[in-house]
Design goal:
single chain, Alpha/beta knot, Trp Operon Repressor, Chain A, 8 helices, binds 6-chloroguanine
Length: 227
């Protein structure tokens, strides 16, 4: 059983993403537990304050160290974390191999930043990994956390069955996935490639691989160069 705890000031944003489809199944099967914690539980005062002005001036608030430290320490007493991950646009860019690695861990704590981010000392003291989901700015870390949990959750052993196997995903072998078709065999004059109807598994496998290569060359040559 993998446990993912998430610290957030907007836990409402994280209610739906884990309650459907494959992540729902992972939770129902007891393979994944997700707990979302409201950072305000650890606020510094009765007003629920968790952020403050930044030293040195400038627009935007910074998440204070005390609530984050209290939350991290309190949750860490319940279960030791393999990684404490801060979602931030200046983190390492998430890619498939990182998700693969994280899917084999036991307990993860995700910290969603807001405003201008969290006090640097929390990063220095507690955070073991910093991840971004791409080179653009989101208004908070929650949607990034949802993306990360989805990418990890579906890889946990036992979550996917043969039909949904992750082995053939785009990126799993640094190639994009080939095109796919379903019925009808002819739709508005457009047909399905003959090979897919041939019933010859070898030929189909070769065709798919060739299509994957072609598609990757056309769209993402950087993947072939191992960039
Ligand atoms: Cl992890 N957080 C925010 N706020 N923006 C992002 C991001 C994370 N990754 C890409 N953009």
């Amino acid at each position: 059983m993998m446990t993912i705890d998430i610290l957030s000031v907007l836990p409402e944003l994280l209610e739906s993403p884990f309650s459907h489809s494959i992540l729902k199944r992972a939770r129902d099967k007891g393979l994944l537990e997700i707990r979302v914690h409201h950072l305000r539980q650890w606020a510094v005062n009765e007003y629920g304050q968790v952020d403050d002005y930044q030293y040195g001036g400038g627009a935007g608030m910074v998440m204070m160290p005390e609530p984050l430290a209290a939350a991290i320490e309190s949750l860490s007493k319940e279960r030791p974390y393999d990684e404490i991950i801060y979602l931030t646009p200046d983190g390492r860019r998430l890619e498939q191999r990182i998700a693969n690695g994280l899917s084999l861990k036991g307990n993860l704590l995700l910290i969603c930043g807001h405003y201008k981010g969290i006090d640097e000392r929390i990063r220095d003291r507690y955070v073991t990994m910093e991840l971004s989901i791409g080179d653009y700015v989101l208004s908070g870390g929650e949607l990034a956390a949802a993306v990360l949990v989805d990418a990890i959750g579906r890889l946990i052993p036992g979550v996917l069955n043969d039909e949904t196997s992750a082995l053939f995903d785009s990126f799993q072998d640094d190639l994009l996935a080939p095109p796919v078709y379903t019925r009808p065999a002819e739709w508005r004059g457009m047909t399905v490639p003959d090979i897919l109807l041939s019933g010859d598994p070898r030929k189909i496998e070769d065709w798919r691989h060739e299509q994957s290569l072609q598609r990757t060359r056309d769209r993402r040559p950087d993947l072939l160069k191992g960039e």
